[in-house]
Amino acid sequence: MVGWWRAGYALEFRAPENPMPAVEPDTGSAPGVPPMGMTESPLSGFTPYQPKKGEAYMGEPQKEHFRQILRAWRDELSAEMDRARHRMQDETVNYPDPTDRATQESEMTLELRTRDRERKLIRKIEETLDQIDSGEYGYCESCGAEIGLRRLEARPTATLCIDCKSLAEIRERQMG
Ligand SMILES: [Zn+2]
Q: 114 — phi, psi (to 5°)?
């Protein structure tokens, strides 16, 4: 996970040509699913927020903007988990060849790890939605600074400002 925010932060915000509706029915083919993995960034089809002159940071309009991003992301993740569950049920075959069996097992392990990550992420998204309601959202939990709209759009579950995040990563690396 090291360096995820850099990738996210460097993201260019282009106005999407075909904005994805916030909630999409699970049709199986999922036309609104971005090519990028949903665990990387949810910001596809969302127009970067343009605050009005003098608008308060994390006022109601901004909160609503992030609620929509987070809910769409959560719904997309749940839909992906459902699809994966069905896929796995379909693919459970008993291969007579041990090599095939081993391949199937490692694929299964990978799949389960992905599912586990998605489950944790969904929980994190739920917690983040609670933080929006309680007014804690958007402020660094280490130094209290504003995390900023662009960083939050790239990483809506961020709880640290870019400086504290960088510092934490340096420390993490030093700890080995
Ligand atoms: Zn900070």
A: -65, -45
